[in-house]
């Protein structure tokens, strides 16, 4: 790929993503969308973007829900040699306005009409294309994303087209991913890295059919698996595992090959419930927006450890923090040496790298280590214990002038019952000083549990 202002020639979209038999089905929504149709739609969208003022080296802000319109305008942006700024459609107008003021795209694409209910995974969207500014892109990245902000304010993260292409090719060398001619039942949002690269871009490159279920329900996901005879991999996050673990399949599902999850750690009880019900591997992926996929365990053989993805190095620092190889600073407008320095991304995750096998075990956030009366306590251990208790759907444990646990019940539960169960399982100094039961724990737009003490305190009040 030749170099230009964005780091690569825009022809990379044709070479890496859209090449192939015109009749190959890329997406099933539920009607099939083949490569010829997708190429035509991308060409039409590219014309609309240019008419709105987009120029090569400019930027487009996409504020679209998962939809064919999102896919088409994303590829058309890159095909124009421009930068795509991905804004989750669930952000408030205030949040979007702040992002636009900071990133000043030339063009904004947003819905003028959206069909379907709130539980739809893919939406029927009519997109409006509007001029915003005449400025070129503020950096040479092909994509700019906002981090999920699960532990605090979101960061602005940029990746070049070369970064994306390298990650797509990395997926092709991972044992256990969906293969050409198979299907990915796509559950995570394509605004975020798992759904974007592990789903959309890899699927287009590897000739894997992408199938979003009609609705976000266990029955709809299983119906999507059973709809065709080809092998299917369900791609999701821990929330989706819980959804399927609590859904009884109507019959055998020989098409179901495995489920692969990314995001936060999967509670052991949830993993067992899934594998007991479906009898297929529950694969695990560890990654970050900054670098994409870092490591995998797609056969569930090493849980909770993962093996570094091909071409990725993982190092355990002297403080127990995991560092990941990352040649260039991924942060836009930020040069914080505590987050990236000398080719290494500082993940803020605590972990251990086995010197003999190279397997990596993630222990949770580095800031989950606290001191209580001179005794070290890992809040991840407390949280894991809580999520393994009967009647607990999910939990978050933070330090807020003492160990504080926020718990979402799954059925009848009282704070006294919880405290008694914990007393049987944890030393006194490890037990939460404060227990708060919430009908619903707050989550980020990617489905991760929010871990900000301030946000949790507000939700609890």
UniProtKB/TrEMBL annotation:
<feature type="domain" description="AMP-dependent synthetase/ligase">
    <location>
        <begin position="39"/>
        <end position="313"/>
    </location>
</feature>
<dbReference type="Pfam" id="PF00501">
    <property type="entry name" value="AMP-binding"/>
</dbReference>
<dbReference type="GO" id="GO:0006631">
    <property type="term" value="P:fatty acid metabolic process"/>
</dbReference>
<dbReference type="GO" id="GO:0031956">
    <property type="term" value="F:medium-chain fatty acid-CoA ligase activity"/>
</dbReference>
<dbReference type="InterPro" id="IPR000873">
    <property type="entry name" value="AMP-dep_synth/lig_dom"/>
</dbReference>
<dbReference type="InterPro" id="IPR042099">
    <property type="entry name" value="ANL_N_sf"/>
</dbReference>
<feature type="domain" description="AMP-binding enzyme C-terminal">
    <location>
        <begin position="381"/>
        <end position="448"/>
    </location>
</feature>
<dbReference type="Pfam" id="PF13193">
    <property type="entry name" value="AMP-binding_C"/>
</dbReference>
<comment type="similarity">
    <text>Belongs to the ATP-dependent AMP-binding enzyme family.</text>
</comment>
<dbReference type="InterPro" id="IPR025110">
    <property type="entry name" value="AMP-bd_C"/>
</dbReference>
<dbReference type="InterPro" id="IPR045851">
    <property type="entry name" value="AMP-bd_C_sf"/>
</dbReference>
<keyword id="KW-0436">Ligase</keyword>
<protein>
    <submittedName>
        <fullName>Acyl-CoA synthetase (AMP-forming)/AMP-acid ligase II</fullName>
    </submittedName>
</protein>
